[in-house]
């Protein structure tokens, strides 16, 4: 399964509650809910380049499947972890550097949508992207 493509956020499910659980303040949550996030995924075997651009930042993330790397969320939360492919999903397992809590995320292509799911400290959320 290839994740290559350009994806634009279309809608969110429980994303505000997820961000609140992550400790993101109200103002940043309101801004993030309308960030117009676009993701460009370039996969070459086990190597990935993910280009994220939103109303607030642009960042290129390079990683190799199964190899630990560091990443900062848009709000500055620092994480360390890995992405692996499990079946038809890209599965991310990350730990926050500040409190050691685990953030799980998956990316899965369903039809013409990229479903990005999150699980953190008992709260689940999704962001659904359309090819753009």
TrEMBL record:
SUPFAM superfamilies: Lipocalins (SSF50814)
PROSITE patterns cross-referenced by the UniProt entry: FABP
Key words of the record: Transport
Keyword field contains Nucleotide-binding: no
GO-annotated molecular function: long-chain fatty acid binding
Domain Cytosolic fatty-acid binding proteins: 5-22
Protein name: Fatty acid binding protein 2, intestinal
UniProt organism field: Lepisosteus oculatus (Spotted gar)
């Amino acid at each position: 399964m290839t994740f290559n493509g350009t994806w634009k956020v279309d809608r969110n499910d429980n994303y505000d509650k997820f961000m609140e659980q992550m400790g993101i303040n109200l103002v940043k949550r309101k801004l993030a809910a309308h960030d117009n996030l676009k993701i460009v995924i370039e996969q070459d075997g086990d190597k990935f380049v993910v280009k994220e651009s939103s109303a607030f930042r642009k960042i290129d993330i390079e990683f190799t499947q199964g190899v630990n790397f560091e990443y900062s969320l848009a709000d500055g939360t620092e994480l360390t972890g890995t992405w692996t492919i499990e079946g038809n999903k890209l599965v991310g397992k990350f730990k926050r550097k500040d409190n050691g809590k685990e953030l799980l995320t998956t990316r899965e292509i369903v039809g013409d949508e990229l479903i990005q799911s999150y699980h953190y400290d008992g709260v689940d959320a999704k962001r659904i992207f359309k090819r753009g």
